[in-house]
Backbone:
């Protein structure tokens, strides 16, 4: 085996080690809610009560079916991990004064950046699956069995899309002092405009246009079609559009990250609060 091939293999081994092990370590260190005493009420109980509230509100007012609110809210709760988790995973390096040592290493920046998203994506996926499971046990939610595999794909893609969106917010936190204010606004913005509680057709035209470029919108639309057994090409198109939105946000986030890194090197402001 040539020296070039060995060097390339070593480079990829290093990339995956930073991506997987570095991402896991950063998740354990920077994710505030990893303790069971915080994880259960924040990532499980609060989303569960959100689902129950809107389902029973919809039933009592007759404005939507149980499936409409279960799918919308169960998929939406993955954005809690994506938005807040990624904000913590990136911006907290600055808050904890550890950003400079990390950026002083020769490690691949893309591996450092993307590795922080994998545990968050898995957390969001687990939260949504928990929402669907409890809805099936308590609310009698029964999605079309034949659509379950594609529904799981829609959930994974939506969780990834929310993670990409959260990466952008976390990158802003490398420069903004109180990024969690922005994260709070972003979280409730996607709850309001992405068709979670109100059908997109009933929202103003400008809001519908905005929703096309935000995470959740197409993932929830695909989830509702699949839960009703009306998947097919339309649901697949929505999943692909959701994936494109997530990739676009992640790419934008990485560009922001590199821009703030270069800017921080010039000004010496990596850890300045």
Residues:
């Amino acid at each position: 085996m040539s020296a070039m091939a060995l060097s390339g293999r070593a480079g990829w081994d290093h990339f995956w080690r930073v991506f997987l092990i570095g991402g896991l370590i950063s998740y354990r260190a920077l994710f505030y809610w990893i303790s069971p005493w915080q994880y259960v009420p924040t990532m499980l109980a609060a989303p569960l009560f959100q689902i129950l509230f809107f389902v029973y509100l919809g039933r009592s007012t007759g404005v939507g079916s149980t499936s409409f609110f279960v799918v919308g809210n169960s998929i939406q709760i993955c954005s809690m991990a994506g938005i807040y988790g990624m904000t913590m995973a990136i911006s907290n390096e600055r808050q904890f004064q550890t950003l400079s040592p990390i950026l002083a290493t020769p490690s691949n920046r893309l591996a450092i950046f993307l590795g922080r998203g994998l545990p968050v994506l898995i957390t969001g996926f687990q939260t949504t699956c928990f929402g669907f499971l409890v809805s099936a046990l308590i609310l009698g939610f029964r999605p079309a069995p034949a659509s379950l595999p594609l529904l799981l794909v829609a959930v994974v893609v939506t969780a990834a899309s929310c993670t990409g969106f959260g990466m952008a917010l976390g990158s802003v936190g490398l420069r903004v002092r109180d990024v969690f204010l922005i994260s709070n606004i972003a979280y409730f913005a996607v709850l309001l405009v992405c068709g979670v509680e109100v059908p997109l057709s009933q929202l103003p035209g400008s809001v519908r246009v905005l929703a096309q470029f935000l995470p959740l919108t197409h993932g929830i639309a695909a989830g509702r079609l699949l839960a009703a057994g009306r998947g097919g090409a339309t649901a697949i198109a929505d999943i692909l559009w959701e994936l494109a939105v997530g990739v676009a946000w992640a790419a934008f986030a990485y560009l922001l990250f590199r821009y703030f890194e270069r800017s921080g090197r010039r000004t010496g402001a990596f850890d300045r609060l």
Q: What stands out?
A: Residues 26-262 form one domain.
